[in-house]
């Protein structure tokens, strides 16, 4: 079982990427379960993922990196023993800290074959986020295996170069890929960097 | 104990659900426009020009789904849908998480935006709020 965590700020395109990844894995005959977390009491993304024919478990009313950390561990154990998927895709809330979630996975006793953490950055708002929530923005990227600069369908040219330069300035060691989860541009490169078939 | 990430981000959040019934069944474009107008009122209901966060909604019905996303005032509300025919009713769920807001402020924005929408579209749309317990029951029953 391989665990893929797709983290990123509110509105960075996590659910769109989840749908694309989930469908791609299903087309290859891989069994994928999505664990989606919403900070509010009403889950929207679980409904949306289910409407796309994907198997999604929704955890609401808290964040799996803090208040729902135990719930995440129980869910991971249940998924492993009862569903035995090839992949577990985790979509945390846009306010979660992915480094903490990796720690929670490590102590969950599910012993995944591999954990891949992708930090999704909204290229359109990257400069605003760095200015207004710099510490938080940085903490969401710093523990990722790779940073996907999303929404390149909305941002081109110098603005996109500035967004990438900003990511590289904040996370000098990060592997960065340009992506449009919406159109699929950059998906092959992302899959390659994630070590997916 | 771990610090709460929502508090760390100084963000507030809330979500609501409604059963929706239309006076006349809507084709896909009309439904998209109607739900986009609703979300636009939610955005205005937040009462700030600069919003950092995410307001999202999904409308599900027997004919399919409509998804709406607001992430930045400089961009239009993003709407996607897959519907097999005209829609007479469905369930709308909306959720917002916004930096610089308290939970109750986000809730009030959703409520006030919805009230404004309902007032403008009273001849075409009827809404009834879904309580949390009902939502859980409908999910357990396989909706």
Q: In terms of topology, how is this protein built?
A:
The complex is a heterodimer of chains A (about 200) and B (about 140).
Chain A lengths: L1 E7 L5 H14 L4 E6 L7 H7 L3 E5 L9 H15 L3 E5 L6 H9 L7 E9 L3 H7 L1 H9 L3 E5 L6 H14 L4 E4 L8 H8 L3
Parallel strand pairs in A: 1-4, 1-5, 2-3, 2-4, 5-6, 6-7
Chain B lengths: L4 H4 L2 E16 L1 H18 L7 E9 L2 E7 L7 E6 L3 E13 L3 H18 L4 E5 L2 H9 L3
Antiparallel strand pairs in B: 1-5, 1-6, 2-3, 2-5, 3-4
Helix pairs in contact in B: 2-3
Question: How would you describe the overall organization of this protein?
Answer:
The complex is a heterodimer of chains A (197) and B (143). Chain A is α/β, with parallel strands linked by helices and 197 residues long. Chain A has a single domain (2-194), classed as P-loop containing nucleotide triphosphate hydrolases (Rossmann fold), CATH 3.40.50. Chain A has eight helices and seven strands, in the order βαβαβαβαβααβαβα. A seven-stranded parallel beta sheet of chain A has the order 3-2-4-1-5-6-7, with helices on both faces. Chain A is globular, with a radius of gyration of 16 Å. Chain A starts with a strand and ends with a helix. Chain B has 143 residues and is an alpha+beta fold. Chain B has a domain at 25-123: Hypothetical Protein Yjia, Chain: A,domain 2, CATH 3.30.1220. Chain B is built from four helices and six strands. In chain B, a hairpin with a 7-residue loop joins β3 (64-70) and β4. The longest helix of chain B has 18 residues, at 28-45. Chain B is elongated. Classes of the chains: A alpha/beta (197), B alpha+beta (143). The A-B interface holds A 10-11, 38-45, 47-48, 51, 63, 65-67, 69, 93-97, 100, 122, 124-125, 128-129, 132-133, 136, 154 and B 2-6, 8-9, 11, 13-17, 52-54, 56-58, 60, 64-65, 67, 69-72, 75, 82, 93-99, 132, 135.
């Amino acid at each position: 079982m391989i665990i893929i965590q797709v983290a990123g700020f509110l509105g960075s395109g996590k659910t769109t990427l989840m749908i694309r990844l989930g469908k791609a894995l299903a087309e290859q005959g891989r069994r994928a379960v999505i664990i989606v977390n919403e900070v509010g009491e009403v889950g929207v993304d679980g409904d949306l993922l289910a409407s796309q024919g994907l198997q999604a478990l929704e955890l609401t009313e808290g964040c799996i990196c803090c208040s729902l950390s135990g719930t995440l561990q129980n869910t991971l154990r249940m998924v492993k023993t009862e569903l035995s998927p090839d992949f577990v895709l985790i979509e945390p809330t846009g306010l979660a800290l992915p480094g903490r979630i990796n720690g929670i996975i490590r102590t969950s006793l599910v012993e995944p074959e591999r954990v891949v953490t992708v930090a999704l950055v909204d290229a359109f708002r990257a400069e605003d986020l760095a200015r207004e929530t710099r510490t938080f923005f940085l903490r969401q990227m710093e523990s990722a295996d790779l940073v996907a600069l999303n929404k390149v369908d909305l941002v081109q040219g110098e603005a996109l170069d500035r967004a990438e330069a900003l990511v590289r300035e904040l996370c000098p060691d990060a592997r960065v890929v340009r992506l449009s989860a919406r159109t699929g541009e950059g998906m092959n490169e992302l899959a390659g960097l994630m070590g997916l078939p | 104990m771990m610090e709460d990430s929502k508090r760390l981000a100084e963000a507030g959040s809330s979500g609501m659900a409604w059963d929706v019934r239309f006076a006349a069944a809507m084709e896909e474009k009309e439904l998209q426009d109607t739900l986009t107008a609703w979300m636009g009122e939610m955005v205005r209901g937040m009462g700030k020009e600069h919003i950092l966060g995410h307001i999202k909604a999904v409308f599900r019905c027997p004919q399919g789904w409509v998804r709406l996303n607001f992430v930045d005032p400089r961009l239009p509300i993003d709407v996607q849908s897959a519907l097999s025919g005209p829609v007479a009713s469905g369930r709308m769920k909306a959720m917002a998480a916004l930096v610089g807001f308290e939970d109750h402020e986000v809730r009030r924005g959703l409520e006030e935006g919805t009230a404004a929408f309902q007032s403008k579209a009273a001849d075409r749309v009827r809404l009834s709020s879904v309580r949390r317990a009902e939502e859980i029951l409908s999910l357990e029953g396989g909706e």
